[in-house]
């Protein structure tokens, strides 16, 4: 059975991608009693820390977060992170379905720089995510090189 994705998810995806919007994260999980119907369960403008506060061990779903990166005051860049979340208390059958359903989710959430799967809040450190974003971005001008 295919995942039913509510239209509000695509709308929220566009809101987060809009530079003029203050909303910088959303979380999509399953409607009560409908394990194949994905809905928007939370949004906010408080960044990664507010997103993390929304997560719980009993929930499975996907988060989408807009993050600002900069090496200095002149190089501001916006990056997007997809967070497949599967809390530690989620049952085995739900966990198994997530690996199949992510393909449907990626048909809607098409543009992201990195994917950071997590089952514990400790796996979503802002410093570690920023490091992964820098590595995914290619050139890193933050370090001094002794090769010259």
From TrEMBL:
Superkingdom of source: Eukaryota
Record-linked PANTHER family: ADF-H DOMAIN-CONTAINING PROTEIN, CORTACTIN AND DREBRIN
Stated name of the protein: Actin depolymerizing protein
Domain ADF-H as annotated: residue spans: 1-134
Similarity comment: family membership: Belongs to the actin-binding proteins ADF family. Coactosin subfamily.
N-terminal signal peptide: none
Organism of derivation: Hesseltinella vesiculosa
Gene Ontology terms describing biological process: regulation of actin filament polymerization
One annotated GO molecular function: actin filament binding
């Amino acid at each position: 059975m295919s995942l039913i994705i509510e239209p509000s998810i695509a709308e929220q995806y566009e809101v987060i991608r809009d530079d003029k919007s203050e909303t910088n994260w959303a979380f999509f999980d399953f409607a009560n009693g409908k394990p194949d119907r994905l809905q928007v369960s939370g949004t906010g403008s408080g960044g990664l820390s507010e997103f993390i506060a929304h997560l719980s061990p009993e929930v499975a779903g996907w988060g989408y977060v807009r993050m600002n990166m900069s090496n200095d005051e002149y190089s501001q860049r916006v990056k997007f992170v997809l967070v497949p979340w599967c809390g530690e208390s989620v049952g085995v059958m739900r966990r198994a379905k997530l690996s199949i359903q992510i393909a449907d989710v990626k048909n809607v959430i098409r543009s992201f720089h990195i994917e950071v799967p997590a089952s514990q809040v400790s796996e979503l450190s802002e410093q570690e995510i920023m490091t992964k974003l820098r590595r995914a971005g290619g050139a890193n001008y933050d370090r001094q090189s002794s090769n010259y």
